[in-house]
Design brief:
The chain has helices spanning about 10-20, 105-115, 145-155, 175-185, 210-220, 235-240, 250-255, 260-320, 325, and strands spanning about 30-40, 45-50, 55-60, 70-85, 90-100, 135-140, 160-165, 195-200, 225-230, 245, 335, 340, 355, 360-365. The chain is an alpha/beta fold. It has 4 domains: about 10-105, Beta Barrel (OB fold (Dihydrolipoamide Acetyltransferase, E2P)); about 130-260, Rossmann fold; about 265-315; about 325-365, no CATH class. Helix 3 packs parallel to helix 7 (about 250-255) and helix 4 (about 175-185) runs parallel beside helix 5 (about 210-220). The N and C termini lie far apart (about 195 Å).
């Protein structure tokens, strides 16, 4: 007798028939802690869980329960449904009743409050991101979209920036130790900033980033740290203690890597400011120089006028002493043998002498 083989569709329909036929599973109430809340149009997707199991839920009147959030403890009423085409068991929810705060979320809040009181989240203790990043350290999984997104964003914004990946486990047992080992590695490695990153997930998936041990290691880290964990709506203790939070890994890379075009524009603006300052300095000094030249010119003109005046006085005095000027007044000068005679007794009566006028001379002699 041969082995009976059935198709996947046959098995799936058989499983569905079992669930549909079990009346005890209709309109039952289940309690658990909420995680992975996602509203798509009017359909609400989420999980409820306890310490040992997880149940995927879907509610087709999701807007009626928009108050639901991760960490809530609730009682859901509905019916299990096996989705044949997708091979997935969902609990179709018709009613949700709050039932307190879940233990995981409560522990998160308690740790957050404790570390906040100790000052681990204080803004004045956060290190600023460097303006000119040359090398980035990344702590994340070496596979998957996260590291590729960071590489893509970095290369697009500035291809000269180096990326050094420390491949870490980012979920499950040993993840916290792996991430801390990455921080220890980059503590003594030449990087300007470190990005701790992983993709989105439920609160359970991100549990390692709510570790007190990891939070204290991040706080003690000597270089700027960017926490880029999960989606925009996900918040972890790592986000609060890090120097900067990136809503997603891509946003984290954008925060760290300044666009090359932005750097060029910044450099152009700085050059413009320097030129303006130089123009202002030149203009100011030119004005000072012009004023000084004007003052020097005025002093020179004043000094020149004074010299001209003094010179005119000396000239007038010299002119008065000039013998030829005296001759113009009708006087004459007597010379004999080149000597001026001021008395008759100065003349040799036997020789002629010269009588000099302003416009010439004549010979003269003494009659005996």
């Amino acid at each position: 007798m041969g082995e009976v083989v059935i198709t996947v569709s046959q098995l799936a329909r058989y499983i569905k028939q079992i669930f549909d036929a079990e009346e005890l599973l209709f309109n039952i109430s289940v309690s658990g802690e909420v995680s992975g809340v996602k509203l798509v149009r009017d359909v609400l997707y989420f999980d409820i869980k306890d310490d040992n199991a997880l149940l995927p839920c879907v509610c087709f009147i999701g807007k009626a329960f928009s108050f639901l959030k991760n960490g809530d403890k609730v009682i859901v009423k509905g019916t299990p449904n096996y989705y044949v085409k997708g091979g997935r068991l969902n609990f179709n929810v018709s009613k949700i009743t709050p039932f307190g705060v879940g233990d995981i979320y409560q522990n998160f809040l308690l740790l957050k409050e404790k570390l906040q009181k100790e000052g681990l989240f204080d803004s004045e203790r956060k290190k600023p991101l460097p303006k000119d990043v040359k090398r980035i350290g990344v702590i994340s999984s070496e596979t998957g979209a996260v590291i590729q997104d960071i590489i893509t964003v970095t290369r697009r914004r500035n291809s000269s920036v180096d990326i050094v990946l420390y491949p870490a486990k980012v979920q499950g047992e040993g993840a916290v130790k792996s991430i801390i080992a990455g921080l220890d590695f980059f503590e003594n490695y030449n990087v300007d900033v470190v990005i701790v990153a992983r993709g989105g997930g439920s609160m359970e998936d991100l549990a390692e980033f709510n570790s007190e041990t990891l939070a204290r290691r991040i706080f003690a880290f000597s270089k700027p740290i960017v926490s880029a964990v999960g989606h925009e709506t996900d918040f972890t203790i790592c986000d609060f203690v890090a120097d900067v939070r990136g809503a997603t890994p891509s946003v984290g890379a954008e925060l760290v890597v300044q666009s090359l075009q932005t750097q060029k524009e910044l450099f152009a603006r700085q050059c413009g400011r320097v030129k303006s300052l130089m123009d202002l300095l030149v203009s100011k000094n030119k004005s000072i120089l012009e004023n000084n030249m004007s003052n020097i010119h005025s002093l020179a003109m004043s000094y020149s006028s004074e010299l001209k005046y003094l010179l005119s006085l000396k000239r007038a005095k010299l002119e008065k002493l000039n013998p030829y000027e005296i001759l113009k007044l009708g006087y004459a000068r007597i010379e004999q043998d080149g000597k001026v005679a001021s008395s008759v007794n100065d003349l040799d009566k036997d020789q002629e002498f010269d009588i000099i006028f302003k416009d010439g001379k004549i010979k003269g002699a003494i009659k005996q």
